[in-house]
Amino acid sequence: MRSRNRTSSGSTRDGWIDALRKIVGPDACLTSQAELYAYACDGLTLDPHQPEVVVLPQSTEEVAEVVRACRAAGRAFLPRGAGTGLSGGAHPLNDAVVISCARMNQILNLDPRDRLAIVQPGVVNADLSVAARSEGLFYAPDPSSQQACTIGGNVAENSGGPHTLKYGTTTNHILALELVLPDGSVVQLGSATGGATGYDLLGACVGSEGTTGIVTEITVRLEPLPEAVETLLVIFDGVPDACRLVGRIIRGGLVPAALEVVDRRTVEAVEASVYRAGLPQEAGAVLILELDGPACALPAQIEHIRALADEAGAQEIRVAADETERTRFWRARKGAFGAMGRLAPDLYVHDAVVPRGRLPEILEEICAIGDRYRLKLSNVFHAGDGNLHPNISFDRRDPDELERVIAAGREILEVCVAAGGVLTGEHGVGTEKRDYMGMLFGPDDLEAMKKLRATFDPEGVCNPGKIIPSTRACLESNPKARGYDRVPFT
Amino acid sequence: MASSKSDALANFPESLYEGTLDCVHCGLCLTHCPTYRVTGRESSSPRGRIYMMRGVAEGDLPFDQTIADELHLCLGCRACESACPSGVEYGSLLEAGRAAAAEAGLRPGVRHRLEGLALRHVLPAPRRLRAFTTFLDWAQRLKLDSWLTAVWPRGLRRAWSLLPPVPPRAARRPLPQFTPAEGPRRGCVALHEGCLMPELFGAVNRATVRVLSRNGYDVVVPQGQRCCGALLAHAGDLDSARSLARQNVKAFTSDASFDMVLSNSAGCGAALRETHHWLPEDGAALSSRVRDVCEWLDEVGLRAPLGHLPLRVAYDDPCHLVHAQQVAAAPRRLLEKIPGLELLQHRDAEACCGAAGTYGLLQPEMSAPILEAKIQSLAEVEPEVVATGNPGCLLQIRSGAEERDLPFRVLHPIELIDAAHHAAS
Ligand SMILES: Cc1cc2nc3c(=O)[nH]c(=O)nc-3n(C[C@H](O)[C@H](O)[C@H](O)COP(=O)(O)OP(=O)(O)OC[C@H]3O[C@@H](n4cnc5c(N)ncnc54)[C@H](O)[C@@H]3O)c2cc1C
Ligand code: SF4
Ligand code: SF4
After folding, report:
1. What residues have CB less than 8 Å from B95, skipping those under 6 apart?
2. Which of A99, B132, B382, B383 has fewest C-beta within 10 Å?
3. Is A202 helix (H, G, I), strand (E, B) or coil?
4. Which residues of chain B from 167 to 206 reach within 8 Å of chain A, CB to CB?
5. Is B266 inside a domain boundary?
């Protein structure tokens, strides 16, 4: 933790902080050391950085004024949602001013006719779906952190969730954005009617991890609630069997709403927590499978799944009896990461995507890496998308263990990339994977990304230190990096 | 006022530090926290508070007034525990943190000091409490209060307005030490009557005894039982709380003739259930035998007939029942059994109402918007009765309803069951 000496009241005598205070009001400008400490990191507790000031603006105008004041003072800045990010995206590097969107939490318009909503960035993901429910609609991207994370953070990370399999990630649901650019000007990208004219600047901003500006208004697409939903637990002896069933289902052409695998260690942790749902603790793996659609179609699909599950060697299939049980299963799945926290003070949630067909062997390798480094590693993952989340429980106060955690993490990513996978499925690059970008991308690719970023933020003042590796890391980058597919003209 | 690193560590008991390590900083608790919802400040969130305490324990942060203030701004509602997958025992952390703040000489504001006086010297002393309620009774009868409070500061006026009309003396007479079961005897239970309950909610205590007896239980009210100490512990006075807990262990465990110790006040029940946190040696003997009265009745089943009560009822979860004791379904199941009673569903039933023990009196600025949200969600379903099983919540919701001139009554669920039994007989 880096912290500087301050006067005992925590305030500094610098005029620029007074300028910020004037814009947002004294109550929305935090400068005392303890308050700032609470903003030093997000869901990734490694390498925290305490900011010098946090502001909580309430409107686009206030955000724009804050950005201009930061520019005038020569300060970097970054947006923050709920701080549930898992790649250090909200860690304030380079003494950046934290612009928290927590008070910009209004749903401005919910339009059932056009099936869209206009929201401020601090609206909590789950709150939007709850509000839309009365109109028979829902917001599809459902990260496991949805009870806390914000739509602004989701846009920045292009977040996914269990239902990404059928409904796509955040980018498929964003129609338009209002963005305060790093120079303090305000632009609109995209349009509520959808459609695209010219370059897809909206697409470039979704998933840009707060490096292209601060999103201050978001127009999202809402989906109609399916007529019927069935949630099944398919219970297996081991994770490879569960993966095999996933492969067969997808090959058979059926697209379930969700296909999630939870391993034994995770089930044990969840069942010890407030999220317990009666998942079988003796099983080697549990596949949570959801089907949704017209009521008349589901019984046949369940039968189809039953047959495939038998073939794949499933021990048992349980169909959620009612909405209450369904909700319980999902709460258990979504509480899974945090429940692993019961095993040790810290948790490192990895995120990588691999070709679905190779899931079983890659998982085996990952577990072997965990064993080799003597780490408590568990797996819970979006099997349908091949999106893995190996979780490592550890204690950051133990320097030796910390070293092993980092080394194991790197090896896991190498295995995934070597198998044709990518570095992140939904948690972003942030600071965590910034210096691994060279595993996947060559200098040309990275240069192209830098240029794209510079189009929005030529001086690199908006969320500095994220995504693009430092020059040193660039030079060390892997010469064999796969990079974007460059098909030679023949 | 910042203390040095070593002082800070000395003020943080090891168990508190260990407790902070359970938090993996996932943030799932944030939106469940009323003070985070209102302020949007992470330092006013469970995760922020825990992280700050860890920071102090690790010597990263001085234990300063900001941290002490954040600990006092916390409602102690423990909604964060119900959201926490990692099993953080936030309630214990808060008590230890506040005690450490008191020890570090981080003095809370004047209101808190008045609270301390009242808590230490009035609540646990039945005679003084009785004298106070008698004074209150006279003041209210003589309408002293309206001109008296006119000159008081706003916070104190609000506090006064929360005080309920004192029930007539007859309702405040002590409970019989023994009430026999009606009909075939199913067992024997002991009742913890609470400190405020007999003075302000004697009717609820009487209804509780009637319902238990009608359902086949002998009810004993053991002598020597004391205030549960929860309010003291929440205020950081763990020593006084422990001494009360010791007396309660003695009062309730020396006699093995009853099956269970029941509480009809969520706050007291939660504290009694966690006696082992305060008294690791012998607390478990008491805590393992405590149940909430609705939970117990749901478990053993109502035997006496229930008459028709055509009422629209909204059940609102007391924090210390739903979050601290994880009891949510039992009271609803009981109410649903009453013929004619329509159980309504309002938004955020499990969210805090802002009463939180003495919080409504001490932090009126934070308590008011929290209460407002609660009253709004209740008003939307237009209930005739709001049922909730904790004295603080009963007072708080009543005062909120009065302020907005809403017509509903606020009752303890046991009063509805009692009324239904009565309707059947
Ligand atoms: C228990 C748990 C489960 C999770 N499950 C999933 C999951 O299933 N799927 C998934 O994809 N992720 C998951 N995550 C990761 C995380 O919740 C998501 O990345 C989420 O989108 C972050 O949102 P936030 O509001 O917390 O943003 P923060 O963590 O505050 O910020 C994340 C990034 O967004 C930027 N940002 C925030 N607000 C804005 C804005 N207004 N404009 C521009 N940039 C902004 C920040 O600068 C930062 O780079 C999980 C995290 C946890 C702790
Ligand atoms: S006890 Fe209530 S107010 Fe306090 S941190 Fe937990 S949720 Fe917030
Ligand atoms: S939910 Fe639990 S583990 Fe997660 S941040 Fe809150 S207290 Fe910590």
Report:
1. B233, B234, B236, B238
2. B382
3. helix
4. none
5. no
CA distance A230 to A249: 16
CA of B89 to the centre of ligand 2 (A): 11
Q: Do B40 and A103 touch (CB under 8 A)?
A: yes
Residue type, A182: P
Side chain identity at A252, as an amino acid letter? G
Question: What's the CATH number of domain A107-224, 3.30.465.10, 1.10.1270.20, 3.40.47.10, 3.40.50.720?
Answer: 3.30.465.10
Ligand 3 centroid, distance to B80 Cα (angstroms): 7
Q: Which residue has the tokens 């907005």?
A: B404
B26 touches chain A (CB under 8 A): yes
Shortest Cα distance, chain A CAs vs residue B37, angstroms = 9
Pocket test for ligand 1, best of A45, A46, A77, A84 (most atoms within 8 A of CB): A84
Pick the atom of ligand 3 nearest to A341's CA. Answer: 3
- State which fold the A228-339 domain adopts: Alpha-Beta Plaits (3.30.70)
Where does A13-100 sit in CATH, by number?
A: 3.30.43.10
C-alpha A346 – ligand 3 centre gap (Å): 11
CA atoms of A124 and A147, how far apart (whole Å): 7
- For ligand 2, atom 4, name the residue with the nearest CA: B74
Closest Cα partner for B317 from B329, B306, B299? Answer: B329
A35 with B43: CB under 8 angstroms? yes
The encoded tokens of residue A404 equal 């092993």
Contact at CB, B42 and A270, closer than 8 angstroms: no
Q: What is the pLDDT along chain B (425 residues), one digit of tens a residue?
A: 344 444 545 556 788 899 999 999 999 999 999 999 999 999 999 999 999 999 999 999 999 999 999 998 999 999 999 999 999 999 989 988 988 888 888 766 555 666 666 656 665 666 666 666 666 666 666 555 555 555 555 555 666 666 666 777 776 778 888 999 999 999 999 999 887 777 778 889 999 999 999 999 999 998 888 888 888 887 778 888 888 889 888 888 887 788 899 999 999 999 999 988 888 888 898 899 999 999 999 999 999 999 999 999 999 999 999 999 999 999 999 999 999 999 999 999 999 998 876 777 777 788 889 999 999 999 999 999 999 999 889 988 988 898 889 989 999 999 999 999 999 98
